[in-house]
Amino acid sequence: MNTILSKYAIVIEKIYWFAYLQVLWVLFSLLGFIVFGVFPATHALIMVLKEKDLSSIEAFRIFRNAFTRSFIKLSGAGIVFLFMFVLLIINVIIFQVVYMKVLALGMLGLVFLSMLHFFQYFELGKPIVYQVKRAFSFVWVLPKNNVGYVLAFMGFILSIAFIPGIAFFFGVSITMFFVVKIGNSEESQRLLTLIGDKNDGGESLN
After folding, report:
1. Sorting pLDDT into bands at 50, 70 and 90, what band is 201?
2. Which residues, 6+ apart, have CB-to-CB distance to 130 below 8 Å?
3. What angle, rounded to 10 degrees, do the helices at 38-49 and 164-183 form?
4. Which residue of 10, 63, 149, 153 shows the fewest CB atoms closer than 10 Å?
5. DSSP secondary structure string, 135-191?
6. Is 75's pLDDT higher than 60?
7. Residue 21 to residue 23: CA distance in whole angstroms
């Protein structure tokens, strides 16, 4: 009986934790008027997810510090990625030739994966242009990560389609949890070491 109750308590704690992180992500994204806030808020979410055994107050402090310190840099990076997404989506719509549509869709997927690598290995002290270029190179260096990222976001999309209530309260936080897990795997870190670009996901914001 005690075992069942303890497992139940752990499940409830996890549910609360991911819902709490989701709320933080939404509030801070809104604080940046969404367009400017989503990138810093997502970076802050990843920073919290990379830590272990945090209290709610500690998580909030790390989230707030990560958001404020990276806001200017990452809001600019968000505009760059948004521009690329909009441009490619327009190309998908206007192209009449099938292979050109397929090419544009492929580029759209490439930009999406590079954006996830950008989040995963973002470093506050390095230039944005360098990190965007590096993120595109990681798409080719870490193919297994790409598969994991795609599966994680497919799950997110399916949750929106079939259980939107769950997606609203937990979708982003749980999806980014898996993104962090995949990006911090031993194989990923070993490959990053081989290309001379290993990092711990950014500076500590405790």
Report:
1. very low
2. none
3. 60
4. 10
5. HHHHHHH-HHHHHHHHHHHHHHHHHHHH-HHHHHHHHHHHHHHHHHHHHTSHHHHHH
6. yes
7. 5
